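Per your request, structure below.
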C-alpha cells in the first residue's frame, strides 16, 4: 500500500513539472499593465498563442494584407511573423479605451516603408481599436472604404504621398473622432464637400491633388489651425470672407492653383498668419494697403500672378517680414522702404515693369499688358488701412463691418 501511495505522489509531481514546463514554454505571459498573468488565446488556423483575444482577431487581417503586398524593398513584412504583433515593424499596441487591462493594436506607422498594395480595404477599415494610421510615402492605391467611418477611435489618418484616386472619400465625413487628416500628394479629383470644413479638425492637408472647385464653395466656419490647399485646381477669387474662415491659420497656402480676380482688403484681418502664399495663380489688381496689417507675417508670396500698380510701402514695412516675393508680375513702382528690402535680399521684384531696376520685363511686354482695360471692385478699399501703424496712421475697422461701396 505504501508503495502505491509513493507512486501516486511521483505521478502528481511529474504532472506538476510538465504543467510548469509547458507554462514556461509559453513565456509565462503577464500583463504589460500590471504584471498579472494573462489568459492566452489560440489561433486555430496557425496554432499561435496571443497575449490577448483582440490581437488574435487582427492577426488574420494583417496576414491577408501582407499577402496583397507586391513590393517590399525594405523587407518590412519580414518581421510580420508569429503571434507577437506588438513587435511587428510599424505596429504599436496599447490599452483600448473600453478596457484598460486589455492589449490591442492601437496605431500603425508605415511612413516611408515604400510598400506597394492595390488597396487598404479589408485591412485599415477592419481594425476595431485603431487610433492612428500613418502611411506616408508608400505605393498604396484604390479608394477609401466607407467602413472606415465605423472605426470608433481613429483620430489621425495620414495616407499622403500615395496613389489613391477617385473623388474625395466621403466616408471621412462620418468620422466624428478625426482631428488630423492628411491626403496630400495623391490623385484625388473632383470637388471637396463643404461639410469637411465644418468638422472638428485641427489639421487638414489637401494639397497636391486634382481637386477642382471654386475656392468660395469650400471655405467654411472652422477652427482648423493648419490648412493647405496648394497645387490643386481651385479657381475664382479669394472670397472676402477669408478673414472669417482663415482667421486662426498660421499659414495660408493657396499657391499653384487657378485663383483669379483682385485681392480683397479683408486679407488685412489675418492677424495670426505667419505665411501667406498665393504664388502662381491668376490674381490681378493692386496689393491692398491692408496687407501691411499682417503683424505676424514673415513670408508673403504673390510671385507669378498678374498684379500691378505700386508696391505699398506699408507692406514693405511689416516688422517681421523675412521674405516678400513679388516677381513675375506687372508692378511699376517701389518706394524707398521697399528698395531697402531689395538690397537686403528680402524683396524680390524681378520680371516686373519697374524702370531702373535690373531683370525687368521688356517695355513691349509691359505695354501689351496695360493695353487691356483692368478693373477691380471696391477700389476705395485698396488704400484703406484697417489697423493703426505708427508710421502710416490708419484707423481700426471691425472685420464684421462691410467694405465701402465701390465707385
Amino acid at each position: 500500500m505504501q508503495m502505491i501511495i509513493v507512486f501516486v505522489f511521483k505521478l502528481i509531481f511529474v504532472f506538476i513539472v510538465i504543467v510548469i514546463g509547458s507554462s514556461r514554454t509559453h513565456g509565462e505571459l503577464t500583463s504589460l499593465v500590471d504584471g498579472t498573468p494573462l489568459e492566452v488565446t489560440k489561433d486555430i488556423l496557425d496554432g499561435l498563442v496571443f497575449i490577448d483575444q483582440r490581437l488574435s482577431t487582427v492577426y488574420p487581417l494583417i496576414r491577408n494584407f501582407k499577402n496583397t503586398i507586391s513590393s517590399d524593398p525594405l523587407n518590412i513584412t519580414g518581421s510580420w511573423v508569429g503571434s507577437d504583433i506588438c513587435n511587428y515593424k510599424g505596429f504599436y499596441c496599447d490599452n483600448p479605451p473600453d478596457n484598460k487591462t486589455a492589449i490591442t493594436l492601437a496605431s500603425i506607422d508605415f511612413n516611408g516603408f515604400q510598400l506597394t498594395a492595390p488597396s487598404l480595404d479589408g485591412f485599415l477599415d477592419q481594425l476595431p481599436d485603431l487610433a492612428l494610421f500613418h502611411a506616408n510615402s508608400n505605393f498604396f492605391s484604390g479608394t477609401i472604404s466607407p467602413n472606415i467611418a465605423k472605426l470608433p477611435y481613429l483620430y489621425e489618418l495620414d495616407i499622403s504621398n500615395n496613389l489613391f484616386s477617385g473623388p474625395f472619400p466621403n466616408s471621412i465625413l462620418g468620422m466624428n473622432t478625426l482631428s488630423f487628416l492628411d491626403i496630400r500628394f495623391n490623385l484625388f479629383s473632383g470637388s471637396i464637400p463643404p461639410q469637411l470644413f465644418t468638422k472638428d479638425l485641427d489639421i487638414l492637408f489637401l494639397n497636391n491633388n486634382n481637386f477642382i472647385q471654386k475656392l468660395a464653395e469650400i471655405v467654411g466656419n472652422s477652427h482648423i489651425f493648419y490648412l493647405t490647399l496648394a497645387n490643386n485646381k481651385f479657381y475664382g477669387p479669394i472670397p472676402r470672407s477669408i478673414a472669417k474662415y482663415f482667421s486662426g491659420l498660421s499659414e495660408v497656402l493657396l499657391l499653384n492653383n487657378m485663383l483669379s480676380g483682385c485681392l480683397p482688403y479683408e486679407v488685412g484681418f489675418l492677424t495670426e498668419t505667419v505665411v501667406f502664399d498665393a504664388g502662381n495663380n491668376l490674381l490681378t489688381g493692386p496689393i491692398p494697403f491692408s496687407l501691411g496689417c499682417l503683424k505676424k507675417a514673415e513670408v508673403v508670396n504673390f510671385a507669378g500672378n498678374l498684379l500691378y500698380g505700386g508696391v505699398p510701402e506699408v507692406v514693405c514695412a511689416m516688422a517681421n517680414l523675412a521674405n516678400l516675393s513679388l516677381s513675375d508680375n506687372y508692378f511699376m513702382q517701389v518706394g524707398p522702404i521697399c528698395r531697402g528690402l531689395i538690397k537686403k535680399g528680402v524683396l524680390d521684384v524681378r520680371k516686373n515693369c519697374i524702370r531702373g531696376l535690373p531683370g525687368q520685363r521688356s517695355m513691349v511686354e509691359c505695354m501689351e499688358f496695360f493695353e487691356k482695360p483692368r478693373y477691380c471692385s471696391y477700389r476705395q478699399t485698396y488704400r484703406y488701412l484697417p489697423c493703426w501703424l505708427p508710421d502710416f496712421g490708419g484707423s481700426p475697422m471691425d472685420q464684421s463691418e462691410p467694405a465701402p461701396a465701390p465707385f
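The chain has two domains: 40-190, 246-407.

Regards,
D.
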